[in-house]
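Support case: user asked for a sample of complex input and structure output to validate their parser. Sending the pair below.
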Amino acid sequence: MATAIVAFCVLTATAEAADVRVVASAEPSSVAVGGTVTYEISVTIVGPLALTLQPEPSLPDLSAFEIVSTGTRQDLRMGSGGTQSTRTYTYTLRATRAGGSTVQPATVEVAGQVYRSGTVQINVTGGSTPAAPPVAPPSPQPGPPPSVGENYTPRKAVDLRLTAEPRNPYVGQQVILTFTFYQSQNLGDTRYEPPQVENCVSKELPHPDSTTQVFGGTDYLVQERRWAVFPATSGRLPIEPVKVTTATLPLAPPEELQTNPIELSVRQLPPAPAGKQFEGAVGNFTAQLATDRTSVKAGESFTITLTIRGAGNLHSLGAPTPKVPDWVNLYKSREDRSSAPGYGGNPDLVGGEGRFEFLALAKRQGTVSVPPMEFVYFEPTRGRYEIARTNGVTIEVTKGAVAEPSPTEEAEQMRHIVTGGPGRPARVQLVGMPLFWGLHVLPLLVLAVLGYMSHRTNALRANPRLARSLSAPRVAQAHLRAAHDALKRNEAERFCTCVSHAITDFIAHRAGLQAADITREDAVARLREAGIDADLVARVAALLQRCDYGRFARAEQAECDEMLRTARALIAELHAVKLEGR
Amino acid sequence: MRTVAATVPALCSLMLVVCVALGEDDAGEKASMGAGQSFAQGNTLYAEGDYRAAASAYEALLKTGFQSRAVYYNLGNAYLQLDDPGRAVLCYRRALLIAPRDADTLHNLNYAESQLAYQSSASVDTWMHALLAWTWSRITLNELLVLTMILYWIAAGVGVVRLSSRRRRVTVALWALIALLCLAAALTYGKWHRDYGSGAAIVVAEADMLSGPGPSFDVLARLRSGAEVRILQTQGQYCEVRTDAGGRGWMLKQHLELIGPREDPAFAAR
């Protein structure tokens, strides 16, 4: 059910000047004696007076015609451009004598001023009656829907009514829900909610024009909304009331009004005729069979199309399958259904067509004759099943280029079951195993580590001074290990040389110099240049001097141990200060 | 660096062997022995012509968690004998998920589809669609995963070599492998989504495809048993589906069954 909300806005009027137009027309412009013609006078008033004035037109001389019936309808529009009221007076005239007739202008008096329409020419011929307009197929609902306000008199200034026709439909039969809104006073913003219907397919019908009608001496503006619903199941089908929210008094808060509830009693379809295939169609339909070609080669496909046209539940009906020879494979390939209100010119009738396409494949040469098909549908107005018969179609199948398969070939036989064991169970899916995803992480880790190492190696290659500086502790430790080894072997001279080299080489590497380029004096000078604490420099110089002395005057074991400890401590201290060269 | 690069392929091979070995269910042989009796009982019932009881026996075997190509195949045959080609097609599809190149299953699937009142007009629009459909129908998900894994490890190995070698040939090889890896990964995801994520079949005689998720919407089409659809989304009791021909609509969940067997624990959460 569409849930669009429509707003009616009625504004209060003020006495201002109005723009008035009067238009007269006749349809058809030519009619035979005895035929009828519709003569209409439309009075359009633009401005605030449109809400209050309902001028009656004065008819011209219509002596050549007999007035059969009259009617009135009104269209009221409000928007940013102002208020416009179009009141149309309709006269059905029957021509009484032949000859051309010029209908003089009709006149309307508004606020003391007379407005005129144009003249209308109607030719009345003495010959046969013009052809009648095409007649719509019979409606699936019994008779036309009730006219606005028929057998109903509004009891309040604002009144609502919800009707359904018919009240006891068959499953799939079209039911028209009509919501009528009567108002005899101006209203504020007015909104309504469409009726809620379960187990139905519904379509909104076109809105009829608003009309003005008199009930008990009071003028009412009458508006309607209509829906076509198709019950899908039998039994009691309640329809919720339509709710309207409006302000009936100026400056008063909106109040909610609602219509009467309705309950449909949906009848089950009677049993389908024996031996006939019924596909659920309810309404009034015709059927046609067609093919997209008349000749094909064996092995080529062609399309057989069954078209169902008419009014009814096209949205849910099925279609029988065309009968083809055994040597033609037939597959249902496509279904298209389109239905809308206005079928056959009747705005309240929902209809259209459904196309059911079957793909056919002829396996050998021959003539494919598709016999006429019978489409069974239920006609609710007659309460019985009817049959729409199609034409038959014939397709010539010529010899094809491909080999034509035999009906008994192996491809058409089913192979036997597995009679051994049940086989191995299906393997566990790898995507469900954590180890599988873990194996994806490992290459990423290897790549990350190797990438870091490669980056570091490249960085050291590009900067030799940095590489030398970073290798300083390693070089110093190597010399100290050699010194320790010399001490164990009691080689005092070598011990002193190694300790001296440990200090000087450490300073040289940290300063970015070649070890061979630096002497004891250079090393001390470099420390002073770097702004190292004087006490530390003095201790370094003292140790280096002791090492020089130690080469010529053999030191005691305890003294050597002390020198080694001092060297290690000094290297640790130097490691903590900045010594990098210029 | 070269040593590491040389060990990568070896390590890759080792991991793959581990992977494949894990893919083999350790309890497979024991399960086969336990399932053999139920399977034989189903076969006996089938041979006696009691196809409904045979189908029940095979279904009961599947409910125990034992799944094999033979069980799905025989169950499909039983449904075919029961004149239910829709469910038969579903069973054959499931058998093909396990053994996609099995000739008997492919043959009976074609036979079952020829028995359907409704045949899906499979629309293979382009050669690319045709190639994808061919690939997906002849390879299992595990095989695609292993292929992707191999490419991944090889790409990682070449990446390691690329760290120590700036030669153009290595760079080109690395990018080619990455492209292949992306292709394999896309194929794998497509296979999973097609077979285990969204593929479903109609399991009732007729199912209405509606214009919206509710009984009051218009009926767009009526699909017959066995027709395959793709599930796009789920809303309440309805699923939005797309047919092979491209039509879209909503269907009741209970009219559909996923092709990927729901007993598969790897996909229980889908």
